[in-house]
């Protein structure tokens, strides 16, 4: 009996020691640097944090015996603040991977901090092509969209349909400038003309003077090289000025389903736009979006869907690698195809661009919509190797040519 009791006590001691050891392991922290309160809050913000938490929950909440913890911070659309948050997360809070980093200037700033520390950063909300060109890094991933892909899908379709003269209304920072440049290249290469441009401050409320310049150009298309609240306000004010009734088309070069909902179908109908994801594409997108909507009371944007997909892909790589070492994890992330509701046969290239299908949509007329959020008609599916910049065109120092 003494031997039996001794064995039981010994086994209990081993089990309790193992449990204590597992509890002693620090959590695996991933950090989101987001716009939680300004013009991109609907696109990323609390929805991106929620998507990351959903990915962690669905993964089981832990990996390699470590609990997974999701952090989030508001960068207030300030590049210096974004850099400081990234520095604090990586140096002081023990964050292993940074996700989203909404807005391009803030992403470029945070990306440099992560690069200097050999940490993985996955961009979901920002669009600047610089993130996979000059600013690329061995542990940098550009997951959802970029200015080249947006320009290529939307600009090409517009010019081919006869909308061949453009005037750009551009947000005056990295993303807007890159989006204007990339779209201009597509327009000119396809045989169109660029008649001019005007730059506006980020998060402005009055577009009247900018829109009047665009109207005076008599361009067939006014290209909006901006995003979020700026896109919404520009489209609404263009309708108030009667610009679209006068025959000019407004082309939002980056718009999300949340933007279209804010604008309303009466004003937004007929707009052409490129997206990386839409909640109503198929059974898989609808299933994820239903779960997301139960929490956020609206469907996910492409950036938020991309957060879920990319966090899941990262965690799978950590588990397979048996470590959080950036080199080992990134090697597996690049070797492993991505097949989920967001991407089919997605692949992360050597420059960090995640190749996946892009979609060209037309915004429905009110009479065509079955209800709120039923906003898009699918016009075309563009394979990733056609939508995004080729490796031959890349200016990423990591690309071997």
TrEMBL record:
Residues 1-22 form the signal peptide. Keywords: Amino-acid transport, Signal, Transport. One of its GO terms (biological process) is amino acid transport. This is ABC transporter substrate-binding protein. Belongs to the leucine-binding protein family. It comes from Bradyrhizobium hipponense. It holds the Pfam family Peripla_BP_6. Residues 27-364 form the Leucine-binding protein domain.
């Amino acid at each position: 009996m003494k031997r039996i009791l001794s064995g039981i006590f010994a086994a209990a001691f081993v089990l309790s020691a193992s449990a204590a050891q597992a509890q002693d392991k620090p959590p695996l922290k991933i950090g989101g640097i987001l716009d939680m309160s300004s013009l991109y809050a609907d696109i990323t913000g609390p929805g991106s944090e929620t998507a990351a938490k959903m990915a962690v929950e669905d993964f089981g909440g832990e990996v390699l015996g470590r609990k997974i913890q999701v952090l989030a911070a508001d960068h207030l659309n300030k590049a210096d603040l974004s850099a400081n948050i990234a520095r604090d997360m990586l140096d002081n809070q023990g964050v292993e991977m940074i996700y989203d980093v909404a807005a391009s200037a803030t992403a470029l700033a945070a990306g440099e901090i992560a690069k200097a520390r050999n940490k993985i950063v996955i961009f979901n909300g920002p669009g600047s092509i610089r993130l996979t060109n000059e600013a690329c890094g061995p542990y940098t991933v550009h997951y959802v969209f970029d200015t080249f892909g947006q320009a290529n899908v939307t600009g090409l379709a517009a010019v081919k349909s006869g909308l061949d003269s453009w005037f750009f209304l551009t947000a005056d920072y990295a993303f807007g400038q890159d989006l204007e440049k990339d779209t201009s290249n597509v327009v000119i290469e396809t045989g169109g003309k660029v008649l001019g441009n005007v730059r506006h401050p980020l998060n402005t409320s009055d577009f009247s003077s900018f829109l009047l310049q665009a109207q005076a150009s008599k361009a067939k298309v006014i290209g909006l090289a901006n995003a979020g609240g700026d896109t919404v306000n520009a489209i609404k004010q263009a309708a108030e000025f009667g610009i679209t009734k006068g025959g000019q088309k407004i082309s939002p070069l980056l718009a999300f389903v949340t933007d279209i909902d804010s604008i309303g179908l009466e004003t937004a109908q007929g707009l052409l736009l490129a997206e990386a994801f839409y909640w109503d594409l198929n059974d898989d997108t609808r299933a994820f979006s239903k779960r997301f909507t139960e929490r956020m009371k609206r469907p996910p944007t492409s950036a938020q869907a991309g957060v879920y997909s990319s966090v899941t892909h990262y965690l799978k790589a950590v588990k397979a690698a048996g470590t959080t070492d950036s080199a080992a994890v990134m090697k597996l992330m690049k070797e492993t195809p991505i097949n989920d509701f967001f991407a089919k046969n997605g692949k992360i290239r050597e420059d960090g661009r995640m190749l996946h299908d892009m979609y060209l949509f037309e915004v429905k007329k009110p009479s065509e919509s079955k209800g709120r959020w039923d906003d898009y008609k699918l016009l075309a599916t563009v394979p990733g190797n056609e939508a995004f910049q080729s490796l031959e065109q890349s200016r990423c120092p990591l690309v071997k040519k």
